[in-house]
């Protein structure tokens, strides 16, 4: 794979500043991870109280909102950032939360870490980047409906990989790598072992909850990740949708957006996506500072999550009308020319 790595343009950053930006600490990662875990546990507790009291309408509403939050524990946010090993100075803390959040969202931490490493190396290069493959006009009406109800596309993508790995196979792959690991790669064995642990553990939890009559926990713990995904999907599509492929410049094939404090927190600051791709070693909580350091060389970010979503949906509509259309960012006068080849 090393021979396929693309040499991307990267805005120069002062050496001392970059050293400061990449310095890791445990406290910010611990605050973020425990806050996410606290919201998860608190949500389950509140929902079970509503269920026990027979408050059915608030119970259903709370389950729906819980699912909308649950997605941020997965590869869209928590699992993603922890896969980079940047949130914590202590590796064991990083790996403990990485494994926990991956388990709660049916993600395979061995598989995702390697897949995402490759995505960074060959971002949006046709035939090379298998993790992010975005056809023109990628989403239609049924996709949007599923994001507000049951996200069958996400369920199928994750479960096809998990079921293959559980059986000791690596095809079909979650992201259709062909395959991700060579047969003698020890990570392949760890990927399979995780899938078996995860599948068996979830089945045991489902059985345990059923025996105790704690029916909502079956949904909340094992299946809520696949419902009401509209918030995480709305963050996911503002990463790369509508942009040129096969260009070695993350300023061209990434969107950066200035989210408000709530969405930025839930999303682990990944709204600064160009910045994250340029310097993936910078922890999530320093990405705004990185943005300020390279803003002179990058397109201005869209301000606000929903403004960003509206922009992306407009790009999708334009591509449905003209599959050859791609959005070209406007660069400031101070920026270096885009790197096209």
Verbal overview:
- The chain is mainly alpha-helical and 341 residues long.
- Helix content is 57%, strand content 1%.
- It has one domain.
- A two-stranded parallel sheet has the order 1-2.
- The radius of gyration is 20 Å and the shape is globular.
- The model has no long low-confidence stretch (mean pLDDT 96).
Topology order in helix (H) and strand (E) letters: HHHHHHHHHHHHEHHHEH
The number of helical elements comes to: 16
What is the number of strand segments?
2
Major sheet summary line: 2 strands, parallel
Biggest sheet strand order reads 1-2
Q: How far apart lie the N and C ends? A: 20 Å
Oligomer type: single chain
Structural class call reads mainly alpha
Radius of gyration: 20 Å
Beta-strand content estimate: under 5%
- Overall helicity: 55-70%
Report mean pLDDT, rounded to a whole number.
96
Q: How many domain modules?
A: 1
Report low-confidence residues grouped into runs of 5 or more: none
Indicate the overall shape: globular
């Amino acid at each position: 794979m090393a021979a396929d790595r693309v040499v991307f343009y990267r805005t120069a950053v002062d050496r001392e500043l970059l050293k400061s930006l990449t310095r890791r600490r445990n406290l910010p990662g611990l605050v973020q991870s425990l806050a996410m875990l606290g919201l998860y546990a608190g949500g389950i507790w509140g929902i079970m109280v509503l269920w026990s009291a027979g408050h059915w309408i608030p119970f259903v509403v709370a389950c729906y909102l819980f699912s909308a939050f649950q997605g941020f524990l997965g590869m869209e946010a928590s699992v993603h950032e922890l896969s980079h090993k940047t949130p914590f100075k202590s590796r064991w803390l990083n790996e403990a939360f990485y494994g926990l959040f991956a388990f709660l969202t049916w993600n395979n931490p061995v598989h995702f870490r390697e897949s995402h490493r490759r995505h960074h190396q060959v971002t949006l290069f046709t035939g090379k980047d298998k993790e992010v493959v975005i056809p023109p006009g990628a989403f239609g009406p049924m996709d949007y409906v599923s994001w507000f109800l049951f996200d069958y596309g996400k369920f199928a993508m994750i479960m096809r990989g998990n079921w293959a790995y559980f059986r000791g196979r690596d095809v079909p792959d979650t992201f259709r790598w062909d395959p991700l690991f060579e047969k003698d790669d020890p990570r392949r064995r760890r990927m399979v072992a995780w899938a078996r642990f995860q599948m068996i553990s979830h089945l045991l939890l489902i059985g345990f909850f059923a025996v105790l009559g704690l029916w909502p926990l079956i949904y909340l713990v094992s299946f809520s990740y696949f419902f009401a995904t509209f918030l995480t999907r709305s963050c996911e599509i503002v990463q790369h949708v509508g942009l040129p492929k096969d260009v070695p410049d993350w300023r061209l094939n990434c969107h950066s957006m200035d989210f408000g404090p709530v969405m930025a927190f839930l999303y682990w600051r990944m709204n600064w996506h160009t910045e994250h791709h340029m310097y993936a070693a910078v922890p999530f909580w320093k990405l705004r500072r990185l943005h300020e350091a390279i803003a002179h060389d990058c397109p201005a970010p869209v301000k606000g999550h929903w403004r960003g979503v509206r922009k992306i949906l407009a790009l999708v509509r334009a591509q449905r009308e003209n599959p050859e259309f791609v959005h070209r960012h406007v660069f400031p006068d101070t920026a270096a020319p885009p790197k096209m080849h």
